[in-house]
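note to self — DONT lose this again. spent like an hour looking for the file last time. sequence + predicted structure for the chain T wanted, 272 res
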Amino acid sequence: MQISTQKKRGSMPTPSPLLKNIAIVALAVLIACPWKEAFGLSAGPRLGVRAIYQAEQTEERSADFDLLLSNTVAVLQDRLINRGFFQAAVTRDGTDRIRVIIPDIQTDNEILDILCIPARLEFKDEAGNVLIEDKDIKLAHAYYDYGAYMVYIELTPEGAELFALATAANLGRVITIEVDGEIISAPVVNSVITGGSAIIESPGMTAEEATRLAMLIHSDGMPLRIERIETTFIAITPGMIMPNPGRTLAQTNALYQWLPVAMQLLLRLLWP
């Protein structure tokens, strides 16, 4: 046991006039500046739109409907990001619907209809001639075989005839696969394909790459046909949408944690 004398706590030194002026300016900036908006954290709820889309179920796709619905969600999210809606959120709504929430939209924006428009899929030869298109593709999916990921394509009866002629005429040449004019794959024809199905493979293709390629090829670039059945304009809170690009959740939490501390320090400088 030991006895010690309690040390007297020193008082905070009086800040200089210059330091006080700096603190006053900093405090004024913190109060006046819309710092929450600057960091994507609105002081109040933002306005936006919530749209519900109904996915079409067909007998030929009933077995894979759950997977196709998830792939359709991914396609819609990509379309929104590509059009600058980085905070839009796309999720499944029940077993056959998709919910889309887009902040900062207060009218019936055309993006809500663009999401439903199927992309144009075309297989072209080296001269740019269209060989087959979306209506000729019955299904496409990624799968793993012989130690590699690849994409399996099944054609309609009419598409199978066209593709047999196309591959015979382009043996050893490149056939490009394009979605809305953008080349998504450029395989070389290794054999004449007469069975109504084909395999697209590429050295080093990952599971994600194979899934994405199959998703884009799959019947008009959209795995399932969807129809907008409900549109509601709502107040949006941060938990309903995607995080602001470039800012992680940890950064957001740090902002909330350290801002009060900084304000307390400034207040102590002003009024010790």
